[in-house]
Amino acid sequence: MACKMMKIIPIFFILLATLLSSSYGNAVVSPLCGGRVFVENTIVIEAPVHENCHWDIQTQEDRILVITALNGNLKEAQEFLAIHDGSGKDSPILLVENQKTHERSRKDLPQAVYTTQSTASIRFKKAPTSNLQLKIQKAVICPFNLGTESQCGRVIDDVSCYCATFTKRSQVSQRTYCYNHNMKLLSLETYEKEQAIHVAWGYEARFWTSLTDAIDEGTWYWESTDTALFPGYSNWCNRQPDDAGAFGGEDCMLTNYETNGCWNDGDCEKDEFDAICQAIP
């Protein structure tokens, strides 16, 4: 009897650990018949083999949820399930065909459903006929504009948001403008991200970013993400940065796509350009 118990206990703890870990990170939640799941970043739910299964999904309070299908078509999957905006019994059903598309969002993003709050419920009306997997991610709210002279979209991926403002301001003022809209000034940590910004807003604009060396001359860092530029990606124009203001003091970076598609330094308080704000989960 003791020998049998020794075999049962480890198996129990392995199963328990699997279920607990499945609620976080990039875990795949096995096709149990429903439950409660907290989304830290990304989870994948496998469709159950039973009917009438109900999942309650939650993420942090100031974020929303985006749901896509890893295999198959999310719109077609609505035959088997209903995605509710919230966890209450009477919470509205979200449909793929009712989702609004942001003006500057990438056209190649998968079909998705976005909640308007930090909770959702997924109710399987019947078992899918194919191996359906739902990818559920934590995302930021993306406004449709920040005013009359702005454009917003999911430019990089389906969880972050970028908004261009075409009202020219100083870098300091643009930084405040982004902050007042729950966003931060742009950071360009990779070539791929910069190219995506090019595609969204063309090659002829100058945008303020959050790159600055105002605290320590010559030591550039992304203020929005609090990360150093070196040894990361950079795209300075020839002989830039040159700190070439009338009295020096060009301590902020702007994109100079009008000339060579590269970066210049400028005066944070005196020079006025457009800007791009970003919100990242």
Automatic annotation (TrEMBL):
InterPro entries: C-type_lectin-like (IPR001304), C-type_lectin-like/link_sf (IPR016186), C-type_lectin_CS (IPR018378), CTDL_fold (IPR016187), DC-SIGN_domain-containing (IPR051004), Sperma_CUB_dom_sf (IPR035914). Keywords: Disulfide bond, Signal. The keyword Glycosyltransferase does not apply. Residues 157-270 form the C-type lectin domain. PROSITE patterns: C_TYPE_LECTIN_1, C_TYPE_LECTIN_2. CDD domains: CLECT (cd00037). Pfam families: Lectin_C. Residues 1-25 form the signal peptide. This is C-type lectin domain-containing protein. It comes from Daphnia magna.
